[in-house]
Amino acid sequence: MDGNGRWAQARGKPRHAGHRAGVETVRRVIETCGKRGVRVLTLFAFSSENWQRPETEVKMLMELFFTALNREIRRLQKQNVRLRIIGDVSAFSQKLQQLIREGEQLTADNDGLVLQIAANYGGRWDITQAARNLARQVKAGILQPEEIDESVFARQLSFSDQPDPDLFIRTGGEKRISNFMLWQCAYTELYFTDVLWPDFDDQALEAAFEDFSGRQRRFGRVSAQVEG
Length: 228
Ligand code: FPP
Hints:
Elements lengths: L3 H7 L4 H22 L3 E8 L7 H24 L3 E5 L7 H14 L6 E8 L1 H17 L10 H6 L11 E4 L18 E4 L9 H12 L9 H5 L1
Parallel strand pairs: 1-3, 2-3, 4-5
């Protein structure tokens, strides 16, 4: 969800106005994805590296996260959305952690769209914590190093109960993954758009789906194998 700051600056507004406008886009995208039958939507709201931003911006983002979550939980419940927050939430305030637990519990049985919000998340953090868990199991003698294969490793990662993403969308013009779902995006189709996140409307989302539908997904095979 890149481009909030630039969206605000282009309007002579402070950066936080861009983040606030970004929350409106979040609400719209959740609604549209629910209607379009998307099964899982994962939003990168705050990376492990975002703590390095100016203290005032970090504080503002934390407050915004709290107020948006507090306001939207009931709407998510009505829309049959199951909410999950992925990342090291222990760094957040007790108040925010409590709200996250409440939101996840309230929506746990919903069987519509799964909404995953990555917060204080980083792909390298995820891989590192998986490796640490496996090392602990080996040390405790409950796992042999030879038993560690891709599926054993993947089970230790965040998002392990969901399929790998089909489509990765980055708004705001940068063409990089920025430490997002590094393991899980191995065969994900990447889509980059110059549209800034607050301007990412239904038309922009449809353009991404349209582009995706024209891709041939080979997963390492050759065209003839997947066409048959
Ligand atoms: C990147 O834009 C955006 C963020 C770091 C924050 C994203 C957060 C929200 C949209 C609001 C909270 C989300 C939820 C799910 C309630 P940027 O600031 O890097 O933009 P720039 O590159 O133009 O400076």
